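[User] I wish I could look at a protein chain and see how it folds. I have put the entry right below:
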Amino acid sequence: MITCHVRYVIDPKKIVEFERYARMWIPLVEQFGGQHHGYFLPSEGANNIALALFSFPSLADYEKYRLESVNDEACQAAFKYAEQTDCVLSYERSFFRPILSSDTQ
């Protein structure tokens, strides 16, 4: 399993728009075989940082999702919404391999 951590720099005046954008992506990731762990909006501390976590069975499955999402109508609508509202200023992705309680050595 591979977990993608996305760190967003967002416009703090556009939290409502970013939340709408986030809610668009949760079912889309799941539609492409991923498991979304949610978006995390600012609370205390920095008011312009948001996070997302989602997993795919493998990096190859994630790459397949990335390739297929480019041509998906609903994904294109989500990309366009973020661009039109300018709620996402920048983002960076990191990938992690989780250790779960059920894992054995």
In short: The longest strand covers residues 2-10. Residues 2-96 form a domain with the Alpha-Beta Plaits fold (CATH 3.30.70.100).
